[in-house]
Amino acid sequence: MEYKIKTVVEKNLVGLRVKMSLTNNSTHQLWSSFMPRRKEIKNSIGSELFSIQVYSDSYDFKKFNPNASFEKWAAVEVTDHNNVPAEMETLMLPRGLYAAFIHQGAANEFTKTFNYIFNEWLPNSNYLLDHRPHFEIMGDKYKGNDSTSEEEVWIPIKSR
């Protein structure tokens, strides 16, 4: 799987969030509540959607625990955090180094990409996982559970 190492500039995001685990996955409900309201965000930049995961310091990627909780966001990038719609929240994605991969295939096949990144690529790379938000960008090629779908997967890294 090909990847690129990129520095992401600080991004302002607006959206909805939930606390969840993989066992109690609320992703569908989160996006179902966000998508009908995304047009309420008047200062969005572009049409890309951001799916963001914010993990606590204690979240252990090496010892997979499907019950471990994290924060999941459905958001769009905005010019600033002014005029935030009711019940939506703001998130600032900090500047930092990321490894960017392309997940090709249905969204329900994402586990293959996740396993490759964390069990093959990362341990054999010159990088360590950094403690910043992880995110996916769903642009024009994203088609959900369609086998031709593509989304960008961004993993925060730092040099070993």
CATH architecture descriptor text: Alpha-Beta Barrel
Oligomeric state of the chains present here: single chain
Q: Give the strand tally.
A: 9
User: What's the rounded overall pLDDT mean?
Assistant: 93
Q: Report the C-alpha radius of gyration, rounded.
A: 15 Å
Shape verdict:
globular
The SSE string, one letter per element, is EEHEEEEHEEE
CATH topology: Multidrug-efflux Transporter 1 Regulator Bmrr, Chain A
Main sheet characteristics: 9 strands, antiparallel
**What is the share of helical residues?**
10-25%
The rounded distance between the terminal residues' Cα atoms is 21 Å
CATH superfamily: Regulatory factor, effector binding domain
* SS field, number of helical segments: 2
Quote the beta fraction. Answer: 35-45%
Instruction: Tell me the name of the CATH class.
Output: Alpha Beta
SS content category = mainly beta
Extract low-pLDDT stretches.
none
Give a brief rundown of this model.
Helices cover 12% and strands 39% of the residues.
List keywords for this structure.
12% helix, 2 helices, 160 residues, 39% strand, Multidrug-efflux Transporter 1 Regulator Bmrr, Chain A, globular, nine-stranded antiparallel sheet
How is this fold's topology laid out?
Layout: E1 3-8, E2 11-20, H1 27-34, E3 49-54, E4 70-78, E5 89-93, E6 96-104, H2 110-121, E7 127-129, E8 134-138, E9 150-159
Antiparallel strand pairs: 1-6, 2-4, 2-5, 3-4, 3-8, 6-9, 7-9, 8-9
